[in-house]
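Q: I have 405 residues here and want to know how they pack in 3D. Can you give me a structure?
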Amino acid sequence: RARARGALVGPGFVSSHSHLFTSGSRGLGMDQTLYGWIEAMTRYTEAADTEDIYWMTRHGAQDFLRNGITTAFDFTDSGLPFDRESDGVARYTTSVPDTEFQHAQLRAKVDAGLRHVHSVMLAQGDVDTDAALAQLDDVVALAASADPDLHLGLAISGTVQWADSPDAATLEVAAMRRHGLLNQPHFLENPNEVELQRSKFAWYVDAGALGPDLVFGHFIQTTDEILQAAAAAGCGMSWQPMSNGRLASGVASIPRIRELGMRVGMGLDDQSCTDVSDPWNNMRTALALLRATYNDPAAMPVRDVLALHTRGSAEVLGLDDHVGTLQVGRYADFLVVDPRDPDTGPVWDAYGTYVLACSLRNLQSVWVGGRQVADGATLCDPQATEVVDQVHERMARLRAEVDGA
């Protein structure tokens, strides 16, 4: 039974954009923009095997749960090397991902008890379409037996941002239609080679990708023409304010995006670029970035930013019938937050206290499906300590292998 007398109770946070496998790679690429940071933070994970990636992902999943994030859209590691040509041009190595490697990350999320959408990268480069879709068929088949209360769906991690040909968009659309999948591409994130990135928006338009099942991740370096086209088609977007600040990517045009009627969710992004998986920090960073950029507190009201990180994220992922709010018919995923421990003073307004004055230190307990998963700073999973030990041991081994130390 939850002890909530005098505390504030809110829905579990929903991260609409996450990379759980990066949980053991924090603090790397400290002073890099996007592609330099990717190169730095994947230095060791590129050498990971299937068991390594399982424990890395489970570490990320339990970290989310401990911090009040009860549902996440998770971009799985493809296992494909990342080739940075410059700060504005990069690509993944031509290859078909290993299905078991991807599935290990689904198993990790289920074992940790995290509700999730499991997103996979398709084959990259000049790979036969039939081979690429056959590999996706295998991913879908393996996922079919996962616990449906935790595994809330599959999705595609779109890669047009890194592609050399419009064929990438065509393949993504074929995959979406083949299995009825959501597609969330990282798009218009990088502040370098902006015109090159913008030119690829036409690839999605020409492929027939635009629609409610296309959710743009980041969507920073836009034009009003691009925003209007995406909004008119019913696309959504996921906003990662803390990550965008850390990597100097820029500030998304959230007031305009919302004015146009696009669905907007918020994500914690990589644990290796948000570094602390703290939804309160993410919300306050969102407020600060927009209010400072527009010189207007109305650019992002306090109540709205909380809604975006809960109900809004659920809506953009098509999960709002299950998570994101506390009401009859939804999963009982909730947080008990005590503004008295440590004390934050009188509660003049519950929303103001919850968003502006509280933080992880006030998070007293986390509940998923009415079952407690965290008590203060302590996870209830009896394997939580083993997960930590496994990640530290495996990352140390990978570092020795890569660096020759």
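Q: Anything worth noting?
A: The chain has one domain: 15-316. Residues 73 and 296 are 31 Å apart (CA to CA).
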